[in-house]
Amino acid sequence: MKRFTAWRRRPWAGYAVVLAALAAIGVIYAGFSPRTDRAEAANSAQAAPDLANGKALFNQNCASCHGLNAEGTKDAEGKPISPSLIGVGAASVDFQVSTGRMPAMNPGAQMPRKRPIPAFDTSIKTDHEDPEERAAAEKQKAQAEKNLADLRAYIASLGGGPEVPPASAVDPKKGDVALGGKLFRTNCAQCHSFTGQGGALTGGKYAPPLSNDDVTPTQIYEAMLTGPQAMPVFNDTTLTAEEKQAIIAYIVQIREEPNPGGNGLGRIGPVSEGLAGWLIGIGLLVLAAMWITAKKPKKLKKS
Amino acid sequence: MSESTAPKAVEAPLNFLDDRLGSTTFFKRNMKKVFPDHWSFMLGEIALYSFIILLLTGTFLTLWFKPSMVEVVYDGSYTKLQGVKMSEAYASTLHISFDVRGGLLMRQIHHWAAILFMASILAHMLRVFFTGAYRKPRELNWLIGIGMFTMGMLEGLFGYSLPDDLLSGTGLRITQGVAESIPLVGTYIYMFLFGGEFPGTDIVPRMYMLHILLIPGLILGLITAHMMIMWHQKHTAMPTQHQTEQQVYGYPFYPVFMAKTGAYFLFTFGVLALLGAFAQINPIWLFGPYDPGAISSASQPDWYMGVLEGSLRIMPNWEITAWGHTLSLNVLIPALLPLGIVFGGAAAWPFIEQWVTGDKRHHHVNTRPRNAPVRTATGMAAVTFYGLLWIAGANDVVADRFSVSLFATTWFFRFAVFLGPVLAFIVTKRICLGLQRKDADVIGHGVESGIILMSPEGRFTERHEPAREEERVVLLSKENARPEAPAVDARGVPAPGAKGPLGHLRSRLNRAWQFDDVPVEEHAENGHAELEGDKETARH
After folding, report:
1. Burial of B266 by CB count in 10 Å (0-12 exposed, 13-18 middle, 19+ buried)?
2. Is residue B354 part of a domain?
3. Is the pLDDT confidence value at A221 over 50?
4. Rounded CA gap, A205 and B532, in Å?
5. B320 within domain boundaries
6. Of A199, A289, A303, the CB nearest to B297
7. Would the CB atoms of B288 and A185 count as touching at under 8 Å?
């Protein structure tokens, strides 16, 4: 106790308390904040679609907003609350549900990406040690994949629409990266930023980041094809299937590319660079200046 | 001045120089020049040393950089751009980054040095402003400093535009827009600068010449003038125990300060090498070659241009069209007004302050910021104004990272940029006056000793002890407000400075400068006791 009382009056005591408090808050926050797990590539194992299951899932999860016949709903003034799903196609369903955007929790400017609900969560961890647990997880995953396929088939049966692209069409290794980069800068970068870090849009909307590897090539393709939320549609006459694959190749390869210059500073350009220059550069040099000027020569006499 | 003399090995060459250059004993004398010690006096040196590193790394880069807009097809080791058409400038920058040994490191050190050069100038200017080191006789050096910062902005803009990448091309497009928005001569300036329609093929070679020859030459000249004036006028000093207006207190150049500043050069170089090696800057290969048809979100300039970017972003879309001509206030105002206010204001400030306070004396000892509340508050208002515009330049990054609406940030900054400085002024002034009050209390009553005394009647009091001598010197360095000269003398004749509307303004500003000053002075012993006694009785 006595030592603490002495320390309290030291010049650095205030800083130490603030630092300790910040550290404590950080640890507590890290403990409480919801963890965002990464989803694995959800490439659907195709099975014979079970339309009855799809309709049941639709009634359970979607019908409350989109209407019992997927016709969409309107409020008392005739303004649409949610759109009709007739003709949106399997690709749209796959994108919205596999990214967790649908079923939506609460309507806002834009539906955020989140972990899909358990019935559609195809990214369940299956590498458990315990064989029983693993079997259960694998079963659940297979069921989620089947559910998603059934739901897609049911919506597609209502009025057609774009199909989920085959795996060969989205393979990032087969695309022309240089062409993809050019197309990305012309068509995508104005919202998603140079390397797909995402960006703010008007009215509280935003372009989500493409730089996390839970954004699968299939999802990128589907997004271009169906134009979810604020995104425009890039149909096959605007960007051919090959060009879409080139863009996917660019996005995936650029996010896997290491930064040759050291830490990428978030790859968001001069804002983080300026911040680093001031905080690290000037910060370190101020510390050095304090240290140098605090040094007193021993022998020199002053007049 | 130090009594110690340099050893022979140093003395002899100096004598040699003095003999040959006819400088009598200039070099010999100046080895003993005294430099005061304070960490904030090193901020300007970061700029000096960054500039040296900029010259060296820049020279390295010129060996491979090709300032040419000739279109080439890339065929280098960065596979993701292979076969893409680009300008030779961009291709040669890729070549430096990926195919020249040490090229990327040099590029990164060069860019980080530019960031630190500008940042340290600003930090140095803030130090000079808030301590009042710009006062007579140092106004000229203050103006030179502002000139160097402005020049550095241009130098930086031209420098990062040279690689002809998508990010800097966007900035260049804004530069073109600004040039065009200037009334009457705008289109002529634009055509003269770009040698044709944007972007044309002339701009990169022209910027290159300006960037590697003209502007660095000018900056170098200004640095020389800055240093010579500083050496001649001697450094200002913080108010410490032995420091007076007549004599500088510190360590001699040789051997102490020389070692310190030499070490500091190595520190600067070390920090820049550290940043250059471990923090990626301006990855032009990720931005891609410039294409007028493409643009990216989060396109920001380097930090020192951020304030211009911010003003442009929050400016409402005002235009005046008359007689077939358009006056683009939406570009012209943000380009000229905010920086004009900050730098024009900074340049005029020493003279305004002199005029308001009527203080025409030489000052060599700095003021503590709290002891000039109006100056400090004005400075903080300017910092707030600049800072808000600066953040506004990154409003899309702020909106994205902190999940707030982009439009909300724009409207917030539109108001905050006017209200923030006022608020900052008021808050800072109150804080300064509070600190003055605290100082007055320490001088008047001493510091709390933590010793509790019990009087025979059982009353508890805490003993106050006088502050340490070093502390008292610092506190007593405050110059208390002088009594106001009466506006009219006994015969009703107005004082010479107070005549006319300008004189009235002056005396009003003078009052505002010091009317709420808290005098920090020693009370007579008995006065102190009385005060204590008053307190005691008040408590009963």
Report:
1. exposed
2. no
3. yes
4. 64
5. no
6. A199
7. yes
Q: Chain B residues with CB inside 8 Å of A292's CB?
A: 39, 42, 260, 263-264, 267
SS3 at position B446: coil
Give helix B43-62 / helix B103-130 axis angle, nearest 10°.
Answer: 150
Query: In chain B, pLDDT over 90 holds for what percent of residues?
Result: 60
Q: Residue B34 in contact with residue B246, Cβ under 8 Å?
A: no
Neighbours of B241 (CB within 10 A): 12
Contact residues, chain A, for B399 at CB < 8 Å = 200, 206
Give the torsion sign (CA, B95, B101, B105, B109). negative
Q: How crowded is residue B438: how many other Cβ atoms within 10 Å of its Cβ?
A: 14
Start-to-end Cα distance in chain A? 45
Select from A160, A175, A295, A154 the least CA-distant residue to A244. Answer: A175
Reply yes or no on whether the pLDDT at B539 is more than 60: no
Cα B4 to Cα B378: distance, rounded to the nearest angstrom: 44
Those residues with Cβ within 8 angstroms of residue A78's Cβ, 6 or more apart along the chain or in another chain: none
Cα B35 off chain centre by: 22
B400 and A206 within 8 Å at the Cβ level: the answer is yes
User: Which of B297, B391, B447 to mutate: most A Cβ within 10 Å?
Assistant: B297
The phi-psi region of residue B296 (left if phi > 0; otherwise alpha if psi is between -120 and 50; otherwise beta) is: beta
Is residue B454 within 8 Å of B540, Cβ to Cβ?
no
B2 vs A201, A289, A303: nearest CB: A303
Chain B residue whose CA is closest to A200: B400
CA dihedral (B300, B301, B305, B309) positive or negative: negative
User: Residue B161 is part of which domain span?
Assistant: 33-294
Q: What is the pLDDT of residues B171-228, one digit of tens each?
A: 999 999 999 999 889 999 999 999 999 888 999 999 999 999 999 999 999 999 999 9
Q: Tell me the pairing of strands A206-207 and A199-200.
A: antiparallel
Tally of CB atoms within 10 A around B431: 16
**In angstroms, rounded to a whole number, what is the distance separating the alpha carbons of residues B346 and B354?**
13
Is pLDDT of A205 > 90?
Answer: no
Q: What is the CA radius of gyration of chain B?
A: 29
Secondary structure string (H, E, C) spanning B281-298: CCCHHHHCECCCCCCCCC
Q: Do B116 and A277 touch (CB under 8 A)?
A: yes
Query: Do B405 and A109 count as a contact with CB atoms less than 8 A apart?
Result: yes
Tell me the shortest Cα–Cα distance from A238 to chain B, in angstroms. 16
To probe the interface with B, which of A182, A247, A293, A296 has the most B CB atoms within 10 Å?
Answer: A293
Overall domain count for chain B: 1
Query: Which residue does chain B place closest to A255, by CA atoms?
Result: B286
Q: Which residues on A lie below 8 Å from B283 (Cβ)?
A: 259, 261, 264, 267
Q: Across the interface, which of B1, B104, B281 has its CB nearest the CB of A273?
A: B281
- Tens of pLDDT along B297-309? 889 999 999 999 9
pLDDT average, residue stretch B402-410? 89
Cβ of A192 and B297 within 8 Å? Answer: yes
Tell me, yes or no, whether B251 lies in a domain.
yes
For position B113, which CATH number holds? Answer: 1.20.810.10
- Mutation site for B-interface testing, chosen from A194, A259, A263 by largest number of B Cβ within 10 Å: A194
Any idea which of A88-102, A225-239, B54-68, B238-252 has the lowest mean pLDDT? B238-252
Nearest CB neighbour to B280, from listed A207, A259, A274: A259
Opening angle at CA B333, ends B327 and B339, nearest 5 = 150
Query: Is B474 part of a structural domain of the chain?
Result: no
